[in-house]
Amino acid sequence: MTDKRIYAFGAGKADGNTGMKQLLGGKGANLAEMAGLGLPVPPGFTITTETCRAYHDAGKEMPAGLMSEIRKAVAVVEKHLKRKFGQGLLFSVRSGAAASMPGMMDTVLNLGLNDATVETLATETGSARFAYDSYRRFITMFGDVVAGVSRKFFDAELDAAKKRTRAKLDSDVSAEELKKVVGLLKEVYRRETGEEFPQDPWLQLERSILAVFESWNNDRAIEYRRIHRIRGLLGTAVNVQAMVFGNLNDNSATGVAFTRDPATGANEFFCDVLFNAQGEDVVAGLRTPDDFEAFHERMPKLADELLEIRSSLERHYRDMQDMEFTIEDGKLYILQTRNGKRSARAALRIAISMVEEELLTREEAIVKIDAGSLNQLLHPTFDPKANVQVIATGIPASPGAAKGKVVFTPEAAELMAHKGETVILVREETSPEDIKGMAASQGILTARGGRTSHAAVVARQMGKTCVAGCGELAIDEHERVFRAGNIVVREGQYISLNGSTGEVMLGDVPTVPPELSGDFETIMAWSDEFRRLGVRANADTPVDANKAREFGAEGIGLCRTEHMFFDATRINRMREMILARSLEQKQAALAKLLPMQREDFVGLFRAMDGMPVTIRLLDPPLHEFLPQDSAIQQVIADELEVPVRVVQESVEALHEVNPMLGLRGCRLGLTQPLIYDMQVQAIIEAVRDAERGGAKVEAEIMIPLVGTVDELRPLRRRIEAQVERFNLEKQAKVKVKIGTMIEVPRAALTADKVAEEADFFSFGTNDLTQMTLGVSRDDAEKGFLIEYVIRGIFPTDPFATIDAEGVGKLVEMGIQLGRKTRKDLKVGICGEHGGDPESIEFCHNAGLDYVSCSPYRVPIARLAAAQAAIKAAR
Amino acid sequence: MTDKRIYAFGAGKADGNTGMKQLLGGKGANLAEMAGLGLPVPPGFTITTETCRAYHDAGKEMPAGLMSEIRKAVAVVEKHLKRKFGQGLLFSVRSGAAASMPGMMDTVLNLGLNDATVETLATETGSARFAYDSYRRFITMFGDVVAGVSRKFFDAELDAAKKRTRAKLDSDVSAEELKKVVGLLKEVYRRETGEEFPQDPWLQLERSILAVFESWNNDRAIEYRRIHRIRGLLGTAVNVQAMVFGNLNDNSATGVAFTRDPATGANEFFCDVLFNAQGEDVVAGLRTPDDFEAFHERMPKLADELLEIRSSLERHYRDMQDMEFTIEDGKLYILQTRNGKRSARAALRIAISMVEEELLTREEAIVKIDAGSLNQLLHPTFDPKANVQVIATGIPASPGAAKGKVVFTPEAAELMAHKGETVILVREETSPEDIKGMAASQGILTARGGRTSHAAVVARQMGKTCVAGCGELAIDEHERVFRAGNIVVREGQYISLNGSTGEVMLGDVPTVPPELSGDFETIMAWSDEFRRLGVRANADTPVDANKAREFGAEGIGLCRTEHMFFDATRINRMREMILARSLEQKQAALAKLLPMQREDFVGLFRAMDGMPVTIRLLDPPLHEFLPQDSAIQQVIADELEVPVRVVQESVEALHEVNPMLGLRGCRLGLTQPLIYDMQVQAIIEAVRDAERGGAKVEAEIMIPLVGTVDELRPLRRRIEAQVERFNLEKQAKVKVKIGTMIEVPRAALTADKVAEEADFFSFGTNDLTQMTLGVSRDDAEKGFLIEYVIRGIFPTDPFATIDAEGVGKLVEMGIQLGRKTRKDLKVGICGEHGGDPESIEFCHNAGLDYVSCSPYRVPIARLAAAQAAIKAAR
Fold first, then answer.
1. Interchain pair B745, A810: CB under 8 A
2. What 3-state DSSP class applies to B481?
């Protein structure tokens, strides 16, 4: 605990800096940093987070002496600006903790206005309309966030005034009318709070500061911290800063700027300016902003000053910046700077050019790229040259470029999808009943809900594009139509959704296939230098394997052999085997599958020449090969020339209450050894054939669902004997490694024993998550999981990002125990987590040797693996 | 490694003793011990296990110099007995490792006989028949176990001879005929091995010893050690011992004795003697043995000598002994002694009286009792006074006293059970298709298979009586009849099965209710002194609770509230709640259930006055309350006056692919809070009501299926608020503890976090086992689990005895992490493992505070807990 409770900033100096986020909050520390850099930040001061803690510790008492310290700090600001608080000097008051926390009180602007000072402002600015509009906003904000009066009461008065005067926009309301509105708002305030609206600026300030302190512990903030696992913070800081006005006169302006092009990453200043306007006007989009050229023409000195600030900020923060600035009567102020959002393409370009400019080391550049955003580059995207009409923008909730005909009900989605149409499901919001309709759609567009809404969570889980919370939409499900502004879209019309930007576009916007730039190759090459983790792909066919190699995979980490059985030409052989009553019949059916499997493997080995290929023996339960539907059962019975009763009895016999915990994986291998025998034989023969053809083969046989070494041992012995027999009979030299999935919790818990018989481990974190959490993935989409994620009971979808605390602990135990027995044990992961950047960082830190993911995620994994290595080395 | 390879015993001294089992094997060490005690053991010697190891290490070479050492050892025996090997002195050769191992070669008797010595034996004994019968047996045994000739070839010759001479029994075959048979057997030997039957006694001996060494590493022995996890043994020892013959003349005899009555435990000598007979004759049961009185009358000196041996053995081994002895021409030999098997009643009596006799301390006496056997005393048993006709005896595979009509097919079992008949299913052996029939039966009787056969494992899992492997049975399923000796039993006839003894009895044998003796109370009182673990019961009703108290339970560890909903009068209220479309309807249905639940709890609290009662909130998924059958759905729809469509939709909506991992437990509590609200309200009101009635209440609310503290926290807060509100409104002082089940692996892995919000933990090891092993218990009986247990992949049924290595590791982690956060955390177990002695020992060692089990297992748990504490203290 330091004694200093107030940190001033402004006029080229500051008590704090960007390293003091714990004490000053993120906002306060950044304002201090900029002021310290000599940037023109409107002066002000930050009350520390410790002061907030002291307030709460003291049972919500204003700390003794604080107000007099505040008066002194205000006096410093007055001295800088040569204006008196409440007489030309107004303040903004903002909360700001070390972590961003939307649950708290946000902002009170124009503090210091009262019935008298509003007139001063009108006189000084020459605009009564401006002064009274500012006063109106202040009363509303103060009433809402400080006094707890519902905003709707205030808004109702303004709406009534607009109606009365037939004004369309807020700005159409006259000064005269606004003055009346102010009177009515004060009336509302009195009615709702039982007291007059405070006229004393000092009282306004004190109450606003206390309200910020209070908001630290309101229910929403507590809940937010709980959900986001924000712990160990002292409280919120309070930022009190002088107001500046870009709408004061024609010598004023407001603007936003990106230090580089956020779309391409080109090192070009990107700036939008509105003269004689304020921030809100930019956001409202009512006027078309001018560009930097126009700005420079009109205010050359200020524009040059901004250019200099641009470079000094980039040099200082070593990243592309997104700045807000205001010019008040010929003087430039910087109100905010932060790292700017950018497209994936821009991210790569900026990273590389900042290295070239020696602004960043390669390590630093790598870490700054959002690995997940590479997805944009690897999948088809909307043609940037297309002439698009954006009709609304929502929250980019699940990435992708989706287009299709609009439908308004899940039933319609299913029906049209069934007819071969591609559809976009448009809903107010989605619920578990909509699951099937969502699955039938290309994309989902909702009017309500954020990134953790049902629609968003389910869409990400399904890999569907989703734009959520698009408030501009007015949906009429009954009439089968939605409106976005003046645009009306009816069921059956085409729209396109950009899940990465949240844009909703009219019509069937053309897409372009991904084109990988030189920048992409450069970043991949750098990543490969820094990463320790190997990256393999999950691939079942030569086509997938080639795609994976193209993207830089160093082997196949998971080939799911069952996928080879589901092929239309093969599934009946599999069914024959299942329905066979005698050993001979079973063997005959398997003998037909053997050459097919062998050719599959030969193809894979050739494609992956010189790289390891991990082949998992049959994993799913046999009932997945038989239909539940009685009509289809009849068809199959006819095809296979068996009585339908045989099919029915098999379905009945194979039925399980909990198939997830049932007869599959190595349990099948142990109780029905013929299937694995056939698969192993196919692998052995394929190794020999591919090697004869000149390929270098590293075959790894992986046994799924092992829970105890006593399952693995006999299976391993049997495979070894089979290989030995083959080599003896055929005078061959086939070699295979034999390893196991670690996906049953018990296998991780007893990994020291399991490692006695395993050449390698591969963590199957999909199933491991199901069993460790006791959550069925098959039921997840309509079940409680969605609600758990929305409510923050699970911090993220545990099937998307590994649950490091629970499942991760088992993974760590498994690695540690396994390597205790076998020092050189090779350990990988082949669950879907292998392609998720956050999970990859976990994998690096846990000491895995490689991750394996779908071919399209290989580049993401390479980058994420490099980032993890760089971060860990720090 | 010691240099000494041969340990002699006999004539009152021995090189070894009972502590040398690792080196001499169990058999050798015990023979040495008895010889060392001065007991009349036929002299011989033991070749060490280290010698066996040396044999294998040397690539199966007879260790250099061993045969000459053996010759010296034989010379010592010859000197004692004043007979020459091969001339009056014959040997038995037996294997014997430190652990009992049926997979190895067992015994060769009469070694030393050849065409010459058989005549000597005939002359010396005066019985050519005896001599040639001995020779016949020797050739068969040697041929079978040493030379690997199938026994059936030898047996066929004897059978042919019997047919030829119309002999019924082996003993009806004349000396002359046996001499011919011997010739034929030697012919068989030559035919099958290509060499003559060895005539040199030394060669016979050497080859037999090598065969024992070999048998250590045959497939069966390796498999046996693997299954029984026998590790770290050096090899097998070889015991070479002089033969003695109880059938030499009328001054000879053979017998078995128990030092105390194995049925009652009374301190009375229990002895069966056959004069002029040998061991095999006793086993064959062809002659009725004489008792000790008759023995004493005929051979008073030898009988007195035996009595003295009885006391010295009991004093020495400090346990009731089961002895085998032989008298050869007036000289008594002890061939074996071991701790005798006994009934539960006898076990208690013997334990107590040995303490009174100061043979044992109370701790030692407690540990010697088989805790599981108490089951016999707590359930109805066959009336010991009943006149029973035992028609066969099999392996006692699953305890109990079952009786019913014989059926031969599972279909018949189901059919007759449906008609209200009690049935016993009699099968050659059972298979997964028989499951339903087994479930419909009172008991199961099989002709084949042992304690790990399908029938045995499933029966124990179902809690059914089972007698397995009853080889005397000849079953004709087609004729629906079985034969046991001369007895013929047809379908529909009554039989009775004693699952504790393996006896099969004709007719409907009457049973008697259990009567707890003073001995029982004494042992329980001693147990309570020694045990540290608390013992609670799982009970849902006041009747169960009272039974539990009677048996000594110290509280209720698990009250399953859902059992209260399945009651016929209540289930429709539950269904009403599930089918309700509006909040009001739901609340209305729950309001009807509230007073019922409250009265349930009041009853429990009163019954357990002064003791803790742990109440688990609703656990099963809601679909369990709705029928799958469409006809019953219609009935319910009519009763509840809703369209049947509503019921169908609910069933459809609640359907889950994997209900085990589904929407139940706290997941229900979080997503449908009204149910828990009602239950908590009922508990709160019941505490108040019961306390007003004078009861002292310790209510513990337990939340099931918690996987993360973020589930437990909001539920705990909600309950706390509800209690606080009630106390405020009703001016009450209700207090409850709030804890959680630990049954999801993740909860154990993150128990430090979970403990932040839990007053207590209770390990639900049923579900924890399902998830940790990935095995569905609902599918276990017809699934792979049975096969896994039979094949030894799982050492025992993990749902019967806790999997200490896997699930146990999670339990230990859970306790350790939980107590790290909350030092005084109370930790129990409420899965079915809580009543299993082996699991209870695990619980003690893991540091649990209490176990909770079904009321009938409470005494077992008390004893097992004491045993665990005593063993741990050693």
1. yes
2. strand
- Tell me whether residues B746 and A806 touch, CB distance under 8 A: yes
Nearest residue, CB atoms, B775 vs list A661, A749, A794? A661
- Report which of A308, A299, A291 is spatially closest to residue A256, judged by C-alpha positions: A291
CA distance A769 to A799: 7
Instruction: For tokens 């303004």, name the residue.
Output: A158
| Record: contact B794-A710, CB cut-off 8 A | yes
pLDDT single digits (tens) B632-668: 889 889 988 899 999 998 998 899 999 999 999 999 9
Extract the tokens encoding B365: 């006496």
What residues have CB less than 8 Å from B784, skipping those under 6 apart? A663, A667, A670, A671
Asked if residues A282 and A274 have their Cβ atoms less than 8 Å apart, the reply is yes
Chain B residue numbers with beta carbons less than 8 Å from the beta carbon of A231 are none
Q: Which of B226, B655, B661 to mutate to probe the A interface, most A CBs <10 Å?
A: B661
Q: Could you give the ipTM of this predicted complex?
A: 0.83
With CA atoms as reference, the chain A residue closest to B771 would be: A771
Yes or no: say if B87 and B120 are a contact pair by the CB < 8 Å rule: yes
Give A509-557 pLDDT, tens digit per residue. 999 888 788 999 999 999 999 999 999 999 989 988 999 999 999 999 9
Q: What is the DSSP letter of A99?
A: S
Q: Helices B454-462 and B784-791: crossing angle, nearest 10°?
A: 120
Q: Which residues of A touch B718 (CB under 8 A)?
A: none
pLDDT at B225 over 80: no
- Of residues B830, B833, B843, B853, which has the active-site annotation? B830
Catalytic residue among B52, B271, B296, B454: B454
Give the pLDDT of residue A599.
Answer: 94
CB atoms within 10 A of CB B763: 30
Alpha-carbon distances, residue A484 vs A388, A467, A508 (angstroms): 15, 14, 17
Distances in whole angstroms, Cα of residue B827 to Cα of each of A741, B608, B710, B805: 33, 20, 20, 20
Partner residue facing A744 (CB), from B660, B671, B773: B773
Q: In the structure encoding, which two tokens stand for residue A786, read together?
A: 């969605």
Q: Is B418 a catalytic residue?
A: no
Asked if residue B460 lies in contact with residue B790, where contact means CB atoms within 8 angstroms, the answer is: no
B830 is catalytic: yes
Measured CA to CA in angstroms, residue A869 lies from A97, A366, A743, A839, A852 at distances of 30, 11, 26, 13, 17
**Amino acid identity, residue A217?**
N
Of B661, B665, B655, the C-alpha closest to B772 is: B661
| Residue among A271, A466, A666, A830 flagged as catalytic | A830
Q: Which of A94-108, A709-723, B314-328 has the highest mean pLDDT?
A: A709-723
Q: Which residue has the higher pLDDT, A26 or B766?
A: B766
Question: Are A658 and B661 inside 8 Å of each other by CB?
Answer: yes
Sheet holding A331-339, edge to edge: A270-275, A253-258, A321-328, A331-339
Cα A213-A215-A221 angle, rounded to 5 deg: 130
Q: If DSSP states are collapsed to H, E and C, what string results for A420-473?
A: CCCEEEEECCCCHHHHHHHHHCCEEEECCCCCCCHHHHHHHHHCCEEEECCCCE
CA distance B708 to chain A (A): 8
Residue for token digits 């201090």?
A32
Please judge whether B749 and A809 are an interchain contact, meaning their C-beta atoms are less than 8 angstroms apart.
Answer: yes
Query: How many other CB atoms are found less than 10 A from the CB of residue A729?
Result: 8
Distance of alpha carbon B795 from alpha carbon A626, whole angstroms: 33
Dihedral through CA A861, CA A862, CA A865, CA A869, nearest 10? -170
| Residue of B771, B785, B794, B803 to mutate, interface with A, max A Cβ within 10 Å | B771
Mutate which of B229, B657, B812 to test chain A, going by most A C-beta atoms within 10 A? B657
